[in-house]
Amino acid sequence: MLVTLLIDELLPADSPRSAGENKEHVRVLAESEGELPPIVVHRKTMKVIDGAHRLRAAEMRGERTIRARLFDGSEVDAFVLAVEANTTHGLPLSRADRAAAAARIIGSHPEWSDRAIARVAGIAARTVGVIRRRATGGHCQLRTRIGQDGRARPLSTADGRRLAADLIESNPGSSLRQIAAATGISAGTVRDVRDRVERGEDPVPGRVRRGEERAVGVALRAGDPRSIVRDLKRDPALRFSETGRSLLRLLDAHAPMVEDREGLATNVPAHAAGMVAELARGYAGIWQKFAHELEQGGK
């Protein structure tokens, strides 16, 4: 959703551009006809994430306001968004700036794969790998990484099996070893997945699925839903889409219900208890339908 902001209220960006603003580019934008494209602003800090040149062009035109889209994520994610925006449109980042941005993203998101960071920074995945090795001294500090498609490889045996099933379907000529290397599971497990797929069965055995569900259930019963939400927040497929961020905010907002349900119930006024109870049942029903739709693949 577009909003109109006062230019005087905006702050400079945490820009990946080391040389600062390009005055010639600002002049060209200022002299162009028509309305400038909207900029992107971090809501919490009012820093410009994308559009510093457009902002300066608007000032040069003597304008007091500018159209913008607001970003609700963290400052760390705001920097990632700024890098991605500057590699896909506008004045390109220099190669040195892109490499420096990749190094910074490796530090803030070490669980991301080389390909995921390469896509954001606009450099080759091989280059990201070199930067990562320099930053970590060649030592791998994580057992899993999250790819550009949002999948952790392997976050669990179940995730590895699901990924293997996808690869078997999309690359039927791939060997067991190739799929095992891509998914982080053993060649024997890949063989079992292939056999299950050929039989039309779920690639994840029931006992493994139940183990996943129990892990989530244990966290919920322990009053620690935020640990689950924290894991989901590391998923770039959710963090960098508007729908994904909305879902994460919704899930995060429900955490207090698990952590202090009795306290919330005690403090509802008697005259409103019936209405709140009915509303809670209604929301519970909606969540049940949502869970069923997820299990059915969103159908």
From TrEMBL:
Residues 3-87 form the ParB-like N-terminal domain. InterPro entries: ParB/Sulfiredoxin_sf, ParB_N. It holds the Pfam family ParB_N. It comes from the Bacteria. SUPFAM superfamilies: ParB/Sulfiredoxin. This is Chromosome segregation protein Spo0J, contains ParB-like nuclease domain. It comes from Lentzea jiangxiensis.
